[in-house]
Each structure stands twice: as structure tokens, then as C-alpha cells.
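Weekly sync notes, structure subgroup
Attendees: PM, AL, DS (notes)

Item 1: joint prediction request from the bench team. They want all two components modeled as one assembly rather than separately. Inputs as received:
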Amino acid sequence: MARGVLIDLQRITKVFPPDTIALDNVSVSFEAGEIHALVGENGAGKSTLMKVLFGLERRNAGDILYRGEKVDFRTPREAIAAGIGMVHQEILLIPEYTVWENIVLGAEPVGPLGRLDVRRARDVVRAKIEEFQFNLDVDALVGDISVAARQKVEILKLLYRNVAVLVLDEPTAVLTPQEIPQLFGELRRLRDKGKTIIFISHRLDEVLALSDRVTVLRRGRVVGTSRTVDLTKEDLARQMVGRDVLFVSQRQPQERGDTVLRVRDLEVRGTDRHGPLHDISVEVHAGEIVGVAGVEGNGQFELVNAIMGLIPVAAGSIEIEAKDVTHADILTRRSLMSFVSQDRGRMGASLTASVLEDAIMTHHTLDPTFTRWHGVGLDYRRARSFTEEIRKRFDVSMRHPADQFQSLSGGNQQKVILGRELLLDTPFVLMDQPTRGLDIGSIEYVHQLILDLRTNGRAVLLISADLEELFMMADRIVTVYRGVMVADLPVEETNVGDVGLLMLGGIRRAHA
Amino acid sequence: MRKQVMSGVAGVFVALVIGAVIMLVQGFNPVQTYGALLQYSLFTVPALAATLARAVPLVLTGLSASIAFASGPVNLGQPGQLIMGAMGATLVGLFVHAPAPLMILLCIVASLTAGALWSGVAAMLRRLFSMDEFIVTLMLNFIADYFALWLITYPLFDPAALSPMTLPVSTAAWLPSIGGLNTSVLVMLMATVFCWLVMSRGRSGYEWRMTGQNALFARIGGCKVDANYVRVMLLTGALAGLAGGLMILGGSHRFVKGLGASYAWDGIMIAVVAGNGISGTFLYGLLFSALQQGALGMELITAVPSEFIDVLQAVIVLIVVAGRVSLNLVLDYLATRRRLREAQ
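Output from the run, pasted for the record:
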């Protein structure tokens, strides 16, 4: 090996109580000056491994060697002091502070009497920005800059503290397709200046494009470490999932039926809790999947909430099967629509309830076979058999219907929710990022379910932050930007690049 | 469920041991003391009957708090709702004349209604002005307290009495004893079974519990969370009101100053210890009643002051509540060690 081993993780084991083995004898070594990708499905242990290194999680067994010596960081502060920094998925900055204030916060250069030395602070930050060619304005307010720029601030925060190792936890998850190459350019420059970069991801294309070496984790074990040049996407996917994975759409051409969902000129006024919607019109036919593309926070949340009846509609109409539900109560809507939310723990289920209790929600009031004594009692025997049915038909691995919902893995939780919603006898299905946070195997399964819905003549509105997913699933893609619908295109007449531009408001601005 | 029973039994046992240590330190004989406690609460028929009668307000206000807390609304107005329920029963008992069974029924309905109306005020303020029931119900306790005091001091004052109290209610409204057992116990048992059916077998109870855990999810699932909120408030107010009514019909037969004592606060405490479960509330209600009843006899036989029982109750609350959490931690730790050994 030309380069020396910088960090050596030896036989790390981590058990999450009561009996989840998150890491099982994991040994990985990271070399100085490489970009090392850590890939695996959700729950494979990538983030946990890095948290153990970074001092955020305690390990139950194993050793960490850093520069040849045993280390044991108890807090992130110790890890940073030793030269290891981590950028988390959520960006943790103060929006009211400027870029340089955010960067020096916690390690400010001080003059005599402990006063903040503003000029020195700004100069040091500016020097760092120039050194790594980050293209940032030191005096801009963090609240005003883009997500991609905020991520740069997070990285600079660590560079300012002179770390030698940067751990990035799924840095591209918050970026648009156009912003990703820029980040990659910056990361490569950092590597060329001698930094070591550990890059956590489950997006295979990115891993192949960026990294020098790849370590694949599966279910808490190391599958292997390879040089990236020796790998193909299929190899990686097989290592991650443990079997072959198809990357082509299984969608067959199909005649669409009558209009099921008709949203016309929908207006929602913005409040301090959500933004506005303006002039949204979308139709979904039976046997059709319509995708909603957009950078997160451009009106998807408001659209979902307006269709669900959680926020008031100012003007326009929502019809399902020619029934006007614009101002209908939620129960009336639920008799016509199924809903899979992006937030399992908040909207999709009660985490502390039993699997059974979560499984029968909505059925308990719409389906009379779930009740006894003229709707007063709940038939728990029926509820149990229904939960069993979901377990069998949707292949949920769980021990007992009375187990707490949160004892299931993320994928199994989502299967229970999908089972519950799809077994509702509704013409319209609203899916808000149904594969968010799921591993590849589960995503494949959910995609097949959505296509089956289409085959069975249901109308599906699919909101997703993942353009590839939309292009695999949808018949038509509508794009939202700042609460306005900017395009409604059949999937054959567009491509990922165009929609990516639309998501950033590019084409609209070009027309204006 | 099994874990709850385990941590409950273990918690009570540990608390009793701690109580014994406290007594030893103070120079009392714990065996003798606990013996007296049991003898005067459970081991003789009259003692047992007294314990059961004392459990009536504890269990009913406990159920009220349990159902409220499990369903979301933080109804802390049991003391006031109990007072209003007692006053409702008193008013009907004083001014309505009917044959005995009907009279009892009317008084019970009056206490349920009065309690429900009092919690209904809080529910209405919440629905109309988004006022938090947590603070409103607490404040309504004071209003109920002083309103009742005014009623029994002036308009309803018994001229023959030396301290504020009403005249006795019509004897037709007196709950009979059957073989020394106060029949208010039967009403309490029926109410407990009713609550259990609602919460564990009813569709409403399911919706309430789900709303209490995750209101947004329940709402999206089609539960009418606003209507359910009002229903829970009314039901829990009615339960606390019933506790007050039974204290009149099966106890003092008139509204006397200080009637509610601290029963309702004990009920809230019982709900917390029981983790808002119906059967747990019932059992802890009986336990606390036995302790309080036995305390009187304990004072007769031993030199231990009856205040010792307050200490013991507090220790039980702390140990059981803390024990629930720490038992999970211990079980988790053991499971982790087992898994690690398997993995190595």
C-alpha cells in the first residue's frame, strides 16, 4: 500500500438494546488521503459505525486505532480535537448568523480580555474558503443561502478546526442533481490537499463516481472493501442487498381510465407553519401514476396537507371520482383515498401502539366488519386476523401483533402501513415519499406494489424527492417550484436533466 | 402487560422493605406495624368493608385521570368535579322527593351530570378559545371549592349545625349496606367494568388511546379528534362527579365542609402509578385504600404515627414509577450482554 493506514477500526461490535446487533465484528481501515465510501442499505450500520468512531455512540467491543494509537473518543469535541470531523445529514447552523460567525462559533479567535477578534476571524475564514475554492460569501446570512452552500459552511466549520478526516453522512440527500457535481469537485480538491474523506451513501452512482475505495456493509457486517475501479454498479448492488437487483422500470404500457383525482386552480395561503400554493391543477386517471417532482419545501407538503384536509383551501377545488371533497372532513376523504405519508412516526403510525392497533386504523371506522354491537365495540379477533393478513400478504417480519410498532424495522413498519392503506378499498392513493429511509430491497418491493396498484386501475399521486424513482414509476411528472406548478409532462417527453432544471426554477426563469 | 405486573409487584415490595427500614431506624417494630396495618385493612370483615368503601372515591377519580391522560386531555380537575358531583347529588337529595330506588338513581345521574358539566366548561374553553385544559381544570378546582363552601355556609346552611354543612339528604337517597358492605362499592365496580369495556373493547376507547399517543396520526386515520376530546372530558368529569355523589349517598349523607379531602389528588397519583391502565388503577386504588384504612388501626396498636402511611405511599409512587423505567434498562442491559455473548 502506497498510503498509510490512518484509521483502523478493529472488530467493532455494537448492540442496540434489547437485541439488535447494529455492528457485528466490523473491521475497516481508512487510508490517509483517500475518499472512502461506506455503503449499505438503511440499517446496515454505516452511520452507527461512524458515530462510534466520532464518539456519539459507545461501542460494546472492539478497538479504534488512529495514527497507530488506540483512541477512545467520548464526545465529538474530543474527536474534532484529534482531527476527525463529521457532517451530519441534518444541517445544524444558526440562520441569523453570517457564514463566518457560524464557522468560528465555538472556537472563536479572541483578542485580549476575551473579546472576539472579528477581523482575524473573518480573515481566517476567508483564507480557508480561498484555499479550498469554496466560492462562499463570508458575510452572507446563513438563512439566505442555499442548502448546498450551508453544507459547505458545515464542511468549512470542520476545516477551520483543522481536521484531517472528514466524515460525510449522506451529503447528497439534500442536494438537487445539479448541485451534486459541484460538491464532488470540492471533495476531490480536499482529498488532493491531503484530507481523508469518508463518504456514507446508498446511492450507487455517486459512490462509483467519487470514491477511491468502497466498503460495503450488510446487516452490521462487512461484506468487503474494494477499489472502486474494480466495481460495477451491479456488483455493488449485489453486495449491498445480497442478491441481484433490477435497475430498469417494470412499468408496462397501459390504457388509462377515467379521471379519479381532479385538482383545479388550488390556492392555499401561506402561514408561519407552511408556505403558499398557487394555481395548482393536476389530474390523475385510473390506472395512472402521476409523479410530483420538486426540491423539498416547494409546495409538496402543502399539496399533501390540502388533499388530506389538514390545512384549509383558499380557492379552487379537489374532486375524487367526481365527488367534491375540497372542504370535506377527513373521514369522508378517507373513504375515497389511501394515504402513505413520508413520516412514519408522525403521520403514518403511532410508534408506541401495538402493530395491531396501527394496522387497523381507518379500517376500524370505515369497515363495519371491524366493529361489534352496532359500531360501539371493536372486534379484536377480526383485528388480529386482519393484522395476520397484512403480515402474510405484505411479507412483514414480526413476532406478535401485540408487539410495539417501534420494535419493527423501518422497512417492516412501512410494509404494515402500506398494507393498511392499500387494503382500504379506495380509488385514489396518495403517496408522499413512500420509499424514504428504506433500504434497496424494500424500495424495490414498494415500487412493485405501486405498479400493481396501477395495473389494478387505481389512481396514484406519487410525491418523491428521488427523480430516478419518479422516472421509473410515473406516467406523467408534474414539477412544483415555490408553490407553483411549473410543468406537467408525460415521462416519455422529458428527462432527468430537464426536470432537475425545472425543479430549480430554471426554465421558468428562462421564459420570463 | 406482564412487565407492568412484574415492576408493580417488585416496586411495592421494595417500597415496603424501605418502609420497614425507616421504621427500624426510628425504633419501631416493622413486623408488628405491618401486621396491624393488614389486620385493620384486610383481615377482618368490617375492616375489609371499610377498605372497599374508602377505595370508591380513589378508584373513581383514578379512573377519571387514567382515561384522560391515556386519551390526551390533561384533566387535572378531578377535585373540583368531585365537589360539583357531590353538590349535584346533594341538591337532588335535598329538594326532590321520590321513592328510594328512583331517588338513588336520580342522585347518581345528578352527580354524573354535574361533574361532566364542570369538566365541560374546561372543554368548551379549550374548543372556543384554545385555552389549555391543564390550567383551566386546575383553576376550576378553586372555583368549585369556594362555590360549594359558599353554598353550604349560606343558602344551604343547616341552622342546627356548628360548622358549614347542609341538612341531610332525604333518606330515600341513602345507599343501603348489604351485610355491612356499602353498596357504593357495587356502583364503583360497575363503573370500573364499564371503563374497562370502553377502553379495551370499545371503538371509542381505541380511538382515544390512539389520539393520546399520536393525535395527528389518529386524525389522518379518520378519528374525529375534536369530538373525542369533548367526549373524554365529559366522561372523565362524570366519573369524578360520581365519586363525589357516592360520598354523599353512601357516606356522610350531607355536604360537609372539606368533603372531598385529598381523595381526588390521590386518584391522580394512582393513575400515574398505574401508568393510566384501567385494571392497574383499580388495583392500586385498593392498595392505597388499604394503606390509608390500615393506618388508623396501626396508630391504635403501635406507636407509629399514621403520617407514616403518607411516607409509604410516596415511596411506592416513586419506586413503582422509577422502577418501570429502570426495569426496562436492566432488561435491555441483560439482553445486550446475552446478544454479545452469542455474537462473539
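Discussion: The mean pLDDT of chain B is 92.
Action: AL to compare against the crosslinking data before next sync.
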